[in-house]
Amino acid sequence: MASYLVTGSSRGLGLALVSRLASLPKAEVASIIATARQDNPHQLKEIVNASSGRIEFVKLDVTDKTSVEEAVKSVEHKLKGKGLDYLINNAGVMDWSKDGLESMDNLNEIFNTNVTAVHLVSRAFLPLLRKGEKKTVINISTTLGSIARAKVYAQGRSPAYKISKAALNMMTVQYAQEYAGEGFTFLAVSPGWLRTDLGSSYADLPVETGAEKVIDIMQKTTPEQNGKFVNIHVPGWEEAEGNNQYPGGEVPW
After folding, report:
1. Can you tell me which family this protein belongs to (predicted)?
2. Which residue blocks in the chain are alpha helix, DSSP H?
3. Are 21 and 48 in contact (CB under 8 A)?
4. R_g of the chain, CA atoms, integer Å
5. Contact yes or no for 115/168 (Cβ under 8 A)
6. Could you point out which of 3, 107, 115, 126 has its C-alpha 20 to 30 Å from the C-alpha of 132?
7. Who's near 1: CB < 8 A, 6+ residues apart?
8. pTM of the model
9. How many CB atoms are closer than 10 A to CB 170?
């Protein structure tokens, strides 16, 4: 009966993750903390209200240190002395620079949300994670952050996003090395190109598929995978034509 916290739960993958977790048996998922910057946004509120108390909302702006500290206190109160098992750092933003690097003027902003904020949240929740049984942190990344595959995605005009996710992958490794001795597992997961506001309607997969596969990876991960960067597995997409394949396993760095 594990506890879960998801950042950026108001829409897209975050909302789908919360919905998917709520659909699983209570023996697997005892409690879900759904967080977002807005004060209980409409779609999330509907899911929370229908959960019979299993999902609880906590306001959290991942880029604001004070908001993060207040959220930790709120989550600690809601867990009633128990630890947090899983933290999913999902909140993130993506840029579009039509002229590529020349027009990239938002690197600090993107980096602050996609990297620095993940550090703020992970660091702040470490005490509660230490009290949990699973001690697992999932950082939502992307194959666009793979340096080895940079040429494949060269035409994508989102340089700040790519740079920030490459940095997130390295930060995942740093956390993995630092806390391996305490039994933690830190994992970077690429959820696939999903049909969300961020991914667009042209994306490969429904957001529900991405959420299902991320949770499957998360629940099956072991300390032996600590610090890895992994892809989802979607049957039929193992050798798909085009830039994206979803065979599972590790992503080239």
Report:
1. Belongs to the short-chain dehydrogenases/reductases (SDR) family.
2. 12-23, 42-49, 65-79, 107-111, 117-131, 159-179, 207-220
3. no
4. 17
5. yes
6. 115
7. 26, 27, 28, 29, 30
8. 0.96
9. 14
